[in-house]
């Protein structure tokens, strides 16, 4: 769904903090909540920069709301997210989401248009390699490669 013109997220930091808070309730809860955030942003046009949207998603995920709200408000959430971002940027050269990497550090390129960034500013966007259903098979291939690389 498209975003309303006046409701595009100006930051995704709250979404990462909320995902961290959900993960404090266990790996399964964290993964489920993370997927809900991605669906909200990429598929439903919901502003994941707004705390009330994230709280609604937490309720929809049946999280322990008292614990979620406490962990979401904890300054440790932002500290943990910023620390992970620093590791991703410095150690793995991750500059945005989605970034899919194999355990050996190989980066798999999602079939999307990537921004060209100079001095922390977007200066252009790469050509769109596919769109709509035309991206289904490249996306499947990306996940097949990722899953086969992690198979025992």
Can you describe this structure?
The protein has 152 residues and is mainly alpha-helical. The protein folds into 2 domains: 1-93, Cyclin A, domain 1; 98-152, no CATH class. The chain has 6 helices and 4 strands; from the N terminus they run H-H-H-H-H-E-E-E-E-H. The chain has helices at residues 13-23, 27-43, 51-60, 65-73, 75-92, 136-150; strands at residues 100-101, 107-108, 115-118, 121-125. Strands 1-2 form a two-stranded antiparallel sheet. Helix 1 (13-23) runs antiparallel to helix 2 and helix 1 packs across helix 5. The mean pLDDT is 86.
The proportion of residues forming helix, as a percent range, comes to: 40-55%
- The dominant shape is globular
Question: What is the CATH topology descriptor of the largest domain?
Answer: Cyclin A, domain 1
The largest β sheet comes out as: 2 strands, antiparallel
Q: CATH superfamily membership of the largest domain, which one?
A: putative protein disulfide isomerase domain
Spatial ordering of strands, largest sheet: 1-2
Radius of gyration: 17 Å
In CATH terms, what is the architecture of the largest domain? Answer: Orthogonal Bundle
User: Number of helical segments?
Assistant: 6
Strand-residue fraction?
5-15%
């Amino acid at each position: 769904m498209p975003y309303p013109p006046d409701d595009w997220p100006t930051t995704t930091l709250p979404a990462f903090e909320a995902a961290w808070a959900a993960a404090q309730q266990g790996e399964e809860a964290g993964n489920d909540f993370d997927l809900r955030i991605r669906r909200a942003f990429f598929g439903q046009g919901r502003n994941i920069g707004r705390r009330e949207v994230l709280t609604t998603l937490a309720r929809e995920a049946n999280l322990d709301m008292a614990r979620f709200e406490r962990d979401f408000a904890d300054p440790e959430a932002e500290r943990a997210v910023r620390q992970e971002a620093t590791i991703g940027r410095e150690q793995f050269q991750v500059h945005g989401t989605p970034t899919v990497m194999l355990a050996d550090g190989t980066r798999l390129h999602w079939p999307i248009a990537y921004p060209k960034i100079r001095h922390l500013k977007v200066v252009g966007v790469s050509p769109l390699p596919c769109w709509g259903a035309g991206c289904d098979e490249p996306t499947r291939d990306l996940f097949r490669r990722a899953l086969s690389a992690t198979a025992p």
